[in-house]
Amino acid sequence: MWLFGRFGRSSPAKMGDEEYRILLCHGSNKYELSVCGAMTLSELSLKIEAVTGILHMNQKILFKGKNLTEPGATLGAYGITPGCKVMVLGKRFDPSEDTDYQAVVEIENSCSRVESKLNEIIPQISGIHNGYLDSKHCGEALGKLRKELLGVNEDFMRLLEQLDGLSFEEGQGPARQKRKSVVKKIQQLMERSDQLHEDINHLIKSYS
């Protein structure tokens, strides 16, 4: 049972930054949220997104039957005091039903396959650097590895172009965020690849 008796009822003007709890209802699900009177509706929406999985742009927040629509308005201004019940309407985000999100995931999977190729090259370079290969074969082996590394870089560039070519509809926050994280990952892998390319060039010079 959810009790608020010990909180009492406070005037919105007196709450400010003092934390208190409210009850959030989404269908048959109920969540206890810590908020404060100075919290804006926009901030509450992000908190709701975190606990319910409903994207903030897809939420309809109701209090005493009224749809709350002013993002910058505070909970205190809306009269949402300790123990109040707030309702949210909206569908949880399901990645499997979002075609834009899945398009990014497919590119991410391709990135993982290219990363595997990169990881196969690394120990071969290390082996040559540590002298595990007869010196008379090193030049040929390094040339082959450099060619493979160039192919890996081309694959990464192709994936970045594919990500850049994706066009998202308004409100596709998760797909945009996913794309941003995949782009960052590819850029980091390309930096690693560039460093390996430099290592190969140094080794080639030492064996020439």
Task: Please give a structural write-up.
The structure is a single chain. The chain is α+β, with helices and mostly antiparallel strands. It is about 55% helix and about 15% strand. It contains six helices and five strands; from the N terminus they run αββαββαβααα. A five-stranded mixed beta sheet has the order 2-1-5-3-4. The chain is elongated. The termini are far apart. Residues about 1-10 have low confidence and may be disordered.
Order of helices and strands: HEEHEEHEHHH
Residue share in β-strands: 5-15%
Strand order of the largest sheet: 2-1-5-3-4
Query: Structural class per helix/strand content?
Result: alpha+beta
The largest sheet, given as strand count, sense and whether it forms a barrel, is: 5 strands, mixed
Number of strands: 5
Based on CA atoms alone, the radius of gyration comes out at: 27 Å
Level of helix content? Answer: 55-70%
- Rough outline: elongated
The stretches of 5 or more residues where confidence is low (pLDDT under 50) are: 1-8
Describe the structure concisely.
The chain is α+β, with helices and mostly antiparallel strands and 208 residues long. It has helices spanning 12-15, 41-52, 75-78, 99-129, 135-164, 173-207; strands at residues 19-26, 29-36, 60-63, 66-68, 85-89. 56% of the residues lie in helices and 13% in strands.
Secondary structure elements and pairings:
Blueprint: H1 12-15, E1 19-26, E2 29-36, H2 41-52, E3 60-63, E4 66-68, H3 75-78, E5 85-89, H4 99-129, H5 135-164, H6 173-207
Parallel strand pairs: 1-5
Antiparallel strand pairs: 1-2, 3-4, 3-5
Helix pairs in contact: 4-5, 4-6, 5-6
